[in-house]
Records
---
Amino acid sequence: MRLDKFVCKSTRLNREEAVVVIGAGKVAVNGSVVVDAGAQVHESNCIVFQGGCLKPRPFRYLLLNKPKNTLCSNVDGDHPSIFNLLDVEYPHELHIAGRLDADTTGLVLITDDGRWSFNVFNPKYHCQKVYRVRLRDSIEGEHKGEIDKQLVTRFKQGLELPGETKPTLPAKMAYVSEREVLLTISEGRYHQVKRMFATVGNRVVGLHRERVGSIECDVPCGEWRYLSDEEVEGFGFSPFSELDNRL
Ligand code: URA
């Protein structure tokens, strides 16, 4: 990590203040003064400022139940940012792991651990995301209470989304009602769920993310909580080949 970032993460200084104290020769790395704010340092280095060895704050991992018409962005835009809902210190250090559209609700993971968030949404690890999808048109097949079998097969085989060459990875659909399904996917392509249903001639009219890996969206709409250690470690990032067995 950059030295100025390390200083920010272990003091109350912001980035500009960190650059100033580093440039003024007030920070030493492993016994030598370093004035380059962009110098790469490691957590195991001894970084001394104001007579003490700095220790970065521990990583934070949060889940939020995102309300409709909020933005997965660090700043407000057409709608307010979800960060307005978080009463935490140093919110600027946090980022969103796997964004949702403004009109989508449900589980959003937020952290300052870049490696963790990269892995959660890295398609290599096939982390499953479950969406409750409300549809414009019925998905019922021949029998009441069942999804059209052809549709199930198409989603399982993978769909070619417009403008993309690689088909989607196998997706699983479970029937909820004539116009509602639970869809399990293991990627996070741009507007993926809406585009998958558009590709088969349907339209998503309501979307809610219920689960990411084993983490459930278990807080009321607009509320958040910290993840437990088990939840953070539970992703167990290990690639596997036979996705079908997991779906
Ligand atoms: N797929 C979408 O189309 N939108 C989302 O917000 C999430 C997944």
---
Amino acid sequence: MRTLTGLPTARGFAIGPVFIYRGDGDMPVPEYVVEPGREEYERLRLRRARTEAARDLEGLIAVLSERSGKDEAKIFEGHLMILQDPMLAKEVVRRVTESRLNAESAVKQTVSEMRERFSRMNDPYFRERVRDLDDVERRLLKVLVGFASNPHLELKAPAIVVADDLTPSETVQLPRDLVLGFATNGGSTTSHVALLARAMGIPAVTGLGSITSAVRAGETVLLDGTSGTVTVSPDREAILRFHDLVERQRELSEEVSVASRRPSGTLRSGGDVPLFANVHPGVPFDGIRGLGARGIGLYRSEYLWLNAEREPTEDEQASAYREAADFAATLSPGGSVTIRALDIGGDKIFSLLSRQDAPRREPNPFLGNRSIRYLLANPAVFRTQLRAVLRASAAGNVRLMYPMVSCVEELKASARILADVRSELDREGVAYDRNMKVGTMIEVPAAAVNADAFASLADFFSIGTNDLIQYTMAADRGNDAVASLYQPTNPAVLKLMRGVIAAAKRRGISVGVCGESAADPLVGVLWAAMGADHLSMSATYIPVISKLLSRLTRDDLDGYLSAVEAMGDGATGREIMDCCRRWMLAHIPDLDNIAL
Ligand code: PEP
Ligand code: MG
């Protein structure tokens, strides 16, 4: 039995066999000239690889058409056409025959030449096909090199998915009902994959360093997403302890569902800090019910674009937003949904947008053309989304917010476009809520420092600590190598948080926190103590935070904040975290039982 420790990324426990998912990022591709006489063998490998890759694609198309409709499947139908193109096959075979290249080199050279040719063409259709060529090349090489191919086709029974890392699009392609848990070498607690795992209610441990080489496929592991550990080949005692934890977590959920007759976030002294859910469209809303969310505090609209073959239309978006608003209304009286405008870019590079006018690969994507910057540069995309959000607001309690805003010009430009879209709807006689609240995320230090100016241009603030911490500390939120610098309680972060909350109060606008730090028992309560009006998080964490708040009074919160403030600016993030923990244990001795 061995235990590996990583980052506690999505709470919950799982036990099951390992399924090793190999991404192709670091796939070694052998390239050499074959001995005379081996050409026929290489041609045979090629034929087999094409057949197998085509079979994988056909299976994937079938699964996707059934699960998500025809549109997602169309991308892969295009890949199948390229794969079966006789010209491609002929060129590859010619290289094997004439230059005695092994199959892998022949594929790489042929595709590289085609890529060059396509990217020089004036016809945008061919330029867009370059990315498809990349995918087909990877698929063929994976089969030739012997890597696992599509996760859909490989994962056939419930298992714990072990991977180096997973992209958001790989994560959503995995069959949800068969994934018991995620364990990855890289990643962090706030990478988008981590957030997806939370939204799906699947336990996850990231930042394990070398789990892919520490386990074998099929081996049994215990995954504890709450403490961030993975135990390989557990003994009887570990399994019993594990079942005990599962049982305790079940009891906590039951207690919470009894307590949920009181609105979430209610303090012992009365008064409350309402709790909301962060959602990813595409992940069913059902899992949220019964956890205490009073509405949807963050609707990550960009997931409507994920794996999409084309831009979602205005009607499709409007109906998705309406569905979210209808669902939010069932969570509490007047329950609202806060729709965040398309937050594309960073690690959320979706194939559709990279085919269009966004730069294909940015050297520094987290500082690049993302979110509001992309929207302002692509007004047609922005306007379509605004129309859809406004239309949804006619019937439901909808709020809109802008992501990644770093300067007031962006807010002003967005307001001008929104005003114009409203006039357009007026002219067309289309109904919308004229009082729809329009807010902004505060997740860039420049906006936090200058929050007063932003507060006069917004109806509300929603602080995105996932990004705010990353940009303040200059520590990539998805990189486990710098996870120790990603400190929610670093005095610099706390100073920004205090400043933003104070600016909102001065201006009389509401301020919430929708970064995942709100789900951390010590940190979420600290934001409440600082004066956040509400918190929004992955729904599976709401019961824990709600339970903690129900044990505290407003005076307790003031005391908690004073204890943290007494640490001063010279304290380290870790020391402040330790101070939070000491204070909390003194007031809630069974903290560790609650925070399971
Ligand atoms: C954040 O940055 O805190 C946030 C909520 O946005 P996202 O995690 O989607 O970047
Ligand atoms: Mg963000």
